[in-house]
Amino acid sequence: MPPIPxxxxxxxxxxxSVTCTQPSPxxxxxxxxxxxxxxxxxxxxxAFLLALDILEHRFPxxxxxxxxxxxxxxxxxxDYDSAIKxxxxxxxxxxxxxxxxxxxxxxxxxxxxxxxxxAGLMTAMMHDYRxxxxxxxxxxxxxxxxxxxxxxxxxxxxxxxxxxxxxxxxMVLESRRMGGLEALKEGVVDGLGGVEEALxxxxxxxxxxxxxxxxxxxxxxxxxxxxxxLLEGGxxxxxxxxxxxxxxxxxxxxxKRKEEGIRRVxxxxxxxxxxxxxxx
Length: 280
Prior knowledge:
Layout: E1 8-11, E2 17-24, E3 27-33, H1 42-58, E4 63-68, E5 73-75, H2 80-85, H3 89-102, E6 108-112, E7 115-117, H4 119-125, E8 129-132, E9 139-140, H5 143-146, H6 152-161, H7 165-173, H8 180-185, E10 191-192, H9 195-204, H10 216-223, H11 225-232, H12 235-240, H13 243-271
Helix pairs in contact: 1-3, 1-13, 3-11, 6-11
């Protein structure tokens, strides 16, 4: 595939970027590169989140594919020292990104060119679909190996999305490393391949049409309610609510998040030079 001019590029401090291209009509490819292995530091999470905001509020609805320019890694997870030293890292950086992906108003697909470990794999799980390189890379939850517990939303996303409790047990309690073929067999990923295969999934499932009715994100919010509630810190309260109350609360929260997203986009536009806003 020939080089595609970027729609926009966002910096990741201290080095790196998130670049958005459009390999097909209404298909947006977010490619991140934060050497050496795309650790999920605050600036990585914030740039990723801003890219999602820009696409929602400044471009026509479509499909988002996320991938890495570093072919060895999709993401090697958290920078553990940075995470524990950054006040409010989970609540202010990581969880908002995960919540955004999990309930994004259009389809999302994580394209894994290489390893996805720990929080890197969790980030892929927050997408609607996952495709993996069949020839290299492993998926692994290795918290057992370095002595870190899983937080409630970290555990919940696998409990909700993995088709087998035996796979869940092997990943968490054995730190099993899965290559592409095993990951496909166990239902951790939905297919194998690269960008062309991802575009084929988009075409075959008609994913570009799925966000048009305006309820795609709401449907996902209900599907993954347990994880969403844990990411928001209100899972116990969620369980006490009736359906109507929960729906009203979700509408208010979604409206607030939309306002915050638009504010972030407008701040980025003010800081940027030569940026042309796309008409919706």
